[in-house]
Amino acid sequence: MTTARRDTYTPETLLAVAVRIFNERGYDGTSMEHLSKAAGISKSSIYHHVSGKEELLRRAVSRALDGLFAILDEEHARVGRAVDRLEYVTRRMVGVLTAELPYVTLLLRVRGNTETEEWALERRRDFDHQVAELFKAAVADGDLRSDVEVRLATRLLFGMINSIVEWYRPGGRGMDDEQIAEAVVHLAFAGLRTED
């Protein structure tokens, strides 16, 4: 039976197990023994797929980061008025978060204790900076209030979006991801938009 499981285990399913355990125990509190028990395979089988738990962490946070950065390459994020692009990016950020919930949750929990975590934090800062630049452009266009400091507004927006990982459960009762995205956009931008 162990051989059959080993034959059907894939890097993707192993990654999903690792992310679950990292989120439950914390990355630092997770050993290869924990991962092998959770996956139901030997440690040597894990090493057949990856070099170690740091590689699993890098793959996991890369999945979340790649999803976020892909938003910035989408046409609606690159073309049009800055405020419309910013609202689009906000909606899509919620979409990535809900679609990749365990991966984004892990990304939000990294603290810079390893080389991979430092790399992930740097990429997050780069993403945050690009969103802040959209805020600045929307203020310069006169579409967002100039009396609210851009850095603060950006942090509050990210705080609202990132808090979703604490309570959102896919398939649960309540709002779906599109309704959540619309609520975030409405709550954030109703207070930030200038009067028409």
TrEMBL record:
One Pfam family named in its UniProt record: TetR_N
DNA-binding region listed in the record: 31-50
SUPFAM superfamilies in the cross-refs: Homeodomain-like (SSF46689), Tetracyclin repressor-like, C-terminal domain (SSF48498)
HTH tetR-type domain ranges (all copies): 8-68
Alphabetically ordered keywords of this record: DNA-binding, Transcription, Transcription regulation
Keyword Transcription regulation: yes
InterPro entries: Homeodomain-like_sf, HTH-type_TetR-like_transc_reg, HTH_TetR, KstR2_TetR_C, Tet_transcr_reg_TetR-rel_C_sf
Protein name from the UniProt record: TetR/AcrR family transcriptional regulator
Lineage: Bacteria, Bacillati, Actinomycetota, Actinomycetes, Kitasatosporales
